[in-house]
Amino acid sequence: MEKHDENALPIHDALGRPLRDLRISVTDRCNFRCRYCMPEEVFGPDFRFLPQDKLLSLPEWERLTRIFVSLGVEKIRITGGEPLLKNNIGEMISLIRRIEGVRDIAVTTNGSLLKQKARELKDAGLERITVSLDSLDEERFGVMNGRRFPAKRVLEGIDAAASEGLSVKVNMVVQKGVNDQDVVPMAKYFRERGHILRFVEFMDVGNSNAWNLKHVVPSRQIIERIHKEMPLEPVESNYFGEVATRYRYQGSEDEIGLISSVTQAFCGSCTRARLSAEGHLYTCLFASTKTDLLHVMREGKSDDELRSFIADVWGKRQDRYSETRLTQPAAAPKVEMSHIGG
Ligand code: SAM
Ligand code: SF4
Ligand code: SF4
Fold first, then answer.
1. Closest of 151, 154, 165 to residue 121, by C-alpha
2. How high does pLDDT run on average in the chain?
3. What is the DSSP letter of 5?
């Protein structure tokens, strides 16, 4: 295995993309059953989630994060499954905060437990949070989350997070014929409250969500619909690798974002590695293969050896699934979204 050059940070993959972000799934479990992610027919009562002894322990988890940071990672996103189901989520955030070199920590949550946990997250040092919410309509949202969970309670969670001083972004996955009628009402609602709403194109993640291109609402159409009611203008991206394309409501500083993985793939600037709750490294959201870091770590490897190992995996990375999905479908089953987070 080649030893990586200590001075060449961040490390780069085979297509010249730096390693800048780490998305950590802290659990594969969730209290929702969103049809586009964990449909009840697949993730029913008999589904076998990861057992406790297969999960990274807190010290292992911190050690791996530290090693990723030493390779160039600056931004960490904690996701899941549903990360707020973890009792020690505050401790996890505090641990990451103490790692030198981490410039940004965010959490992605379905918001169901946010009202209760907002203070703990803030006290742990979290500054920003992304809440997923697909509709303000109780009937549609109840069906979409598969558990009849009220949108009202997610909105209360968002209010609680904002009152604690957390900066809140909201993600809405838009599906044709399911919730596309909610695009403009959602835009108005979150504009009024000063939170950035990001529209996410429905993606073919995993193998169980019956994805079909016909159900994708292209970001271009979303912009047109909003623009008719509230004129928009494009905004420059903040930094290399920014996932969302940004638009501003004309005459104001209020923004929306669009995550157009299907119609405007952004693999060329993809700087994200993903770590599952059992310590598997995935170099793409649509990966069919993984690297078992837990196993390597439990073999007794030193930090330096682990660094070289991870650098080697990243150095060989050539993933660009979103750019090729329509011409080269995945050859093998892909990892599930709930296993590695968004
Ligand atoms: N449970 C948390 C939540 O829902 O925010 C975190 C994990 S969830 C897998 C992360 C993000 O992925 C959510 O914003 C969710 O809406 C999004 N997501 C899940 N399946 C998707 C799909 N098929 N297409 C697009 N986004 C998806
Ligand atoms: Fe759970 Fe998030 Fe997947 Fe919905 S999108 S089922 S909330 S992990
Ligand atoms: Fe990154 Fe893979 Fe998504 Fe392309 S398809 S942007 S490589 S995660």
1. 165
2. 94
3. -
Pocket test for ligand 2, best of 26, 31, 110 (most atoms within 8 A of CB): 110
Distance CA 122, CA 133 (A): 21
Helix (H) or strand (E) holding 272: strand 272-275
* Neighbouring C-beta atoms of residue 23, cutoff 10 Å: 21
85 Cβ contact list (under 8 Å, min separation 6): 27, 29, 30, 31, 113
Q: Is the pTM of this model over 0.90?
A: yes
What is the distance between the terminal CA atoms of the chain, rounded to a whole angstrom?
Answer: 31
Rounded to whole angstroms, the Cα distance separating 215 from 13 reads 33
Query: Which atom of ligand 3 is nearest the CA belonging to 269?
Result: 6
pLDDT of residue 319: 93
User: Does the CB atom of residue 203 touch ligand 2 within 6 A?
Assistant: no
Does the beta carbon of 80 lie inside 6 Å of ligand 2? yes
Residue numbers in the chain where pLDDT is lower than 50: 1-4
Measured CA to CA, the distance from residue 326 to residue 253 in angstroms comes to 36
Q: What is the CATH number of domain 21-168+266-340?
A: 3.20.20.70
pLDDT score for 248: 97
Dist. CA 170 → ligand 2 center (Å): 14
Binding site annotation covers 257? no
DSSP 181: G
Name the β-bridge partners of 21: 75, 272
pLDDT at 2: 45
Predicted local confidence at residue 1, as pLDDT:
43
Question: Could you say which ligand is closest to the alpha carbon of residue 13?
Answer: 3
5 CA → ligand 2 middle, Å = 39
**In the chain, domain spans:** 21-168+266-340
pLDDT value at residue 81: 96
CA dist., res. 134 & res. 197, Å (int): 11
Which residue has a Cα nearest atom 11 of ligand 1?
Answer: 342
